[in-house]
Design brief:
By secondary structure, the chain is mainly beta. The chain has a domain at about 35-130: Immunoglobulins (Immunoglobulin-like, Sandwich), CATH 2.60.40.10. The protein has one helix and eight strands. The chain starts with a helix and ends in a 19-residue tail after the last strand.
Length: about 150
């Protein structure tokens, strides 16, 4: 009788655990309203030379259920200029904020872009990092007595 009681208790506990883990219970649901999800919140320029390509892209997806509107994007200084999409980003669609940093400035990059959306009053931030090194001076070959004169 004791074995039957133990077996019955075991079966009831399995039934209880099974009821707690119904199919679909662990699936994630989309947030209600718009939701901005960054591919990465860090833009790494790496080690670049002065005057290198200034453009980088911050890619995001609207993982919410309503259109996402980027209200503004502003750089932490005048050397960081973002351009953002003005049209709504529909649920499931990707968007891009283009960021241009003044690569004529030598030294470390430690800036940010602050993004405001219709998702909430809280702002989102993208960090920029990297380092810009000076151009190596190009030396012209020395003239070794070979002077070219125009034919005339």
């Amino acid at each position: 009788m004791k074995t039957i009681s133990t077996l019955f208790a075991f079966i009831l506990s399995l039934a209880y655990v099974g009821a707690q883990t119904t199919p679909g219970a662990n699936t994630t649901t989309k947030p209600s309203g718009p939701h901005l999800e960054w591919e990465s919140t860090v833009i790494d320029y790496g080690e670049i030379k002065k005057g290198s390509d200034p453009l980088r892209k911050a890619i995001f997806t609207n993982t919410g259920t309503e259109p996402l509107i980027i209200k503004s994007a502003r750089g932490s200084c005048g050397c960081t200029v973002p351009t953002w999409p003005k049209e709504p980003i529909m649920p499931g669609e990707r968007g891009v904020i283009e960021i241009r940093y003044d690569t004529q400035r030598i030294g470390p990059i430690n800036k940010s872009v602050t993004v405001t959306t219709n998702e909430s009053e809280q702002e989102s931030r993208i960090s920029l990092k990297g380092n810009i090194s000076a151009d190596e001076e190009q030396t012209l070959p020395k003239n070794e007595g070979n002077i070219l004169t125009p034919k005339g």
